[in-house]
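In the laboratory, one determines a bound structure by crystallizing the protein with its ligand and collecting diffraction data. In a computational setting the workflow is compressed into a single prediction: the sequence and the ligand go in, and a structural description comes out. We illustrate the idea with NAP.
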Amino acid sequence: MKLLENKVALITGASRGIGEAIAVKFAEQGAHIAFTYLSSDERAKALEERLAGFGVKARAYKSDAGDYAAAEQLAADVMKEFGAIDICVNNAGISRDNLLLRLTPEQWDEVMQANLKSVYNLTRQVMKPMMKARAGSIINLSSIVGVKGNPGQSSYAASKAGIIGFTKSIAQEIGSRNIRVNAIAPGFVETDMTHYLKDGGAEKWFEKIPLQRFGKPEEIANVALFLASDMSSYVTGQVLSACGGMNT
Ligand code: NAP
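The predicted complex, in structure-token form:
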């Protein structure tokens, strides 16, 4: 028996990186996958086909996570197509790194909208069918940076810290309905988002990481699988660090 047999998972931002790894991992474990992206049409199409290869239903939706009306439409479309939303992974996110003196109001708003408002937008939608079903697992991608802070990443860190407060609050609001809400706080993971860090030499970052390497998207997907499945049935309101030991 697979861990997510016949569950329906909605994953935001799965055309690349961590979201893509989560979609593949969940499909391998028998989940039907609805996923979103912003602009990578070809990658989304290719992933749709790859996921279908696992014998599950898979559908890509071009939907801006920061747009409330789009989230409302997305949840309605997924319910129509799949008939349920058992698992929601709020993964879509961006970074616009800059020292505060140079950080423009537009950059601040862009990050807050894509990273934090997005989590409010979709959680508010998916909790409705989950409350009816009296079951659900919501997983929000925070970051080690939201826990510790990082120079040059004040907007990103604030958005990721906001996700932690949101996660803990909603876990308390809807725990009585058997809906679990948890966050993952990855450290540095090898994706397009962290590609630029390697330009100056990855080794200098390894000094700060007890495991002395960046994480792989699949390693974050394994944590998401645990939180999505019944393996974590008594876990809610938690922030699970997957950071190679950076946060000890
Ligand atoms: P990534 O490689 O840059 O991929 C981002 C994904 O999100 C893409 O699929 C992108 O779609 C999508 N996306 C971006 N803005 C969106 C929007 N407004 N609406 C819908 N989709 C949107 O990022 P990643 O490294 O995999 O990160 C995934 C999540 O993990 C993010 O929340 C990030 O903050 C968090 N995280 C990452 C790391 C890390 O080291 N990589 C560490 C801690 C936390 P398109 O392809 O269409 O642009």
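The beta strands are 8-11, 32-37, 58-62, 87-90, 136-141, 179-186, 239-242. Keep in mind that any predicted model is a hypothesis to be tested, not a measurement.
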